[in-house]
Amino acid sequence: xxQNFNELITYSKAFPGLTPELxxxxxxxxxxxxxxxxxxxxxxxxxxxx
Length: 50
Fold this sequence. Notes:
This protein is mainly alpha-helical. The protein has helices spanning 3-12, 20-33, 37-48. Helix content is 72%, strand content 0%. The mean pLDDT is 84.
C-alpha cells in the first residue's frame, strides 16, 4: 500500500466517525480507489469554484 494512502488514513482520523472497522474497509478498497483520487479531487475543486 502506498505511503500516500497511509497519510490519507491518518488525516481522515481527524474526522468524527472513522472507526477502526471503517479504516479497515478503506485499506481494503485502497487499491481500487487510489488510481482515481487525483481526478476526483480535481473534479471536486472544479465544481466548488463554479
